[in-house]
Design brief:
This protein is elongated. It is built from eight helices and three strands. By secondary structure, the chain is mainly alpha-helical. The termini are far apart.
């Protein structure tokens, strides 16, 4: 089934863009109309909207996942949970993505299929975990586990960065000291030794 990049508006004039699978443009228009949107234009050309680079930080993704986990655990439907997160996020780029996912869910897509259109945000591991949660009816647990995993990964990366930063700083300090010695200190002592007619130490001789 082909996927269409679409541009649509709702009754209030709110515009949205995204990607949706449909048999043809007529079927696409029908699916959008069922969820309250009117199709403006559509194209089966390159999926730039879905496949482009992500502009969502790891911290924003973790916050989103924890929010979804809490809403789902409280009994909120997946589509309504995505709508709530659309209203919560301050990242305009991420908001467009979440709106498109919500629209696809309301049109009958599974969560796995809806988020699979955005591999730059939801990687393969994330999609598989969410798919398992959706299949086993444990979506809240899946979102929470994914958030905790990403949080642990972020902390690990931070710890590794700090662990490698300290030795690098020490090495930079030592190199700086050696440069200072060779550039300023040794030449001055050499001049003093020459004035006193003394032999230079072996380590300082050219």
């Amino acid at each position: 089934m082909p996927e269409y990049s679409y541009h649509a508006v709702d009754a209030s004039g709110h515009a949205t863009r995204g990607v949706m699978a449909a048999e043809n443009e007529i079927a696409l228009e029908r699916r959008l109309r069922e969820v309250g949107y009117w199709l403006i234009d559509a194209s089966t050309s390159a999926r730039k909207h879905a496949g482009g680079p992500s502009r969502v930080t790891r911290a924003e993704l973790i916050e989103f996942l924890y929010g979804m986990a809490s809403l789902l655990a409280a009994g909120v439907t997946a589509a309504d949970a995505f709508r709530a997160m659309v209203e919560e996020t301050e990242n305009d780029s991420f908001r467009v993505v979440l709106e498109d996912i919500e629209l696809n869910l309301n049109a009958g897509s599974s969560i796995h299929d809806a988020i699979a259109k955005y591999p730059g945000i939801f990687n393969t591991q994330s999609r598989h975990l969410i798919n398992a949660g959706e299949f086993s009816d444990n979506l809240d647990v899946a979102f929470k586990d994914l958030a905790e995993h990403l949080e642990w990964t972020q902390k690990l990366l931070s710890d590794v960065k700090q662990a490698t930063l300290y030795p690098a700083m020490i090495l930079a300090g030592v190199l700086g000291l050696i440069t200072l010695m060779v550039t300023f200190v040794v030449p001055r002592f050499a001049a003093i030794f020459e004035d006193l007619n003394l032999d230079l130490p072996l380590l300082t001789r050219g």
